[in-house]
Amino acid sequence: MKIVTYNVNGIKARLPRLLEYLSEQQPDVVCLQELKSSDETFPIQDVRDAGYGAVWHGQKGFNGVAVLARGVDPVERQRGLEGEPEDEHSRYLECDVNGLAVASIYLPNGNPQPGPKFDYKLRWIERLSQRARALLVSETPAVLAGDYNVIANDDDTFSVRAMKDDALMQPESRAGYRALVAQGWTDALRVRHPGGGVWTFWDYQAGAWQRDAGFRIDHLLLSPAVADRLIEAGVDKEYRGREKASDHAPTWVRLRP
Predict the structure, then answer these.
(1) Which of 30, 113, 171, 188 lies in disulfide reach of 68, CB 3.0 to 4.6 Å?
(2) The pLDDT of residue 161
(3) Domains detected in the chain
(4) Whole-model pTM?
(5) Could you give the residue numbers annotated as active site?
(6) How many angstroms separate the CA atoms of 121 and 20, rounded?
């Protein structure tokens, strides 16, 4: 089973790239982020024509997450996170797919920091941690996949100096992410590539792709039962280099049946 997280940076703008990816790679589950589409304008017919069922949580122009499954319809478990009833951002969607609870996550960026956006980021990480802990307590086989907007380690970026003031790499961001993992989750890409140097994102600016000046912010966290099934984890990097591509590359795990 191949499970993918893919920040598409606008599903309508990247629809040809997404459909191309689905056709060429035939992943079993795809968690999408940054749809930038309302629920009403999500291209569900195109997705269905590609052989995938879908559940989505849209927001016009911003955010937005979805879970796609090949040949089946995901069953929604939870939409959004508890803890801030006034939070209307579409950033969390959890579904049942093939015996797994699969969550698509778009964690807040948090820039500029310090400030209210960074404070929101830290509160959101704590809310995610509470949901993650509940999944572990219930012994639910789960995958938390998405754009976490956290550079967890120094070797997860092309340049510590370039990113030192960014919200993605602040000590508080890292501490929140590490505390989440320490609950008992397996950071699949980190486990399979412990030496770092594996990027999932390359900015559109300053020739970042051409210079391979990227960093790792797309993560797949596996509950213990799922971690036992892990075969491999990686990044389909070449899709970042295609015409009108997202600034993220599809990032994946492969699991035993």
Answers:
(1) 30
(2) 97
(3) 2-255 (3.60.10.10)
(4) 0.97
(5) 106, 147, 248
(6) 33
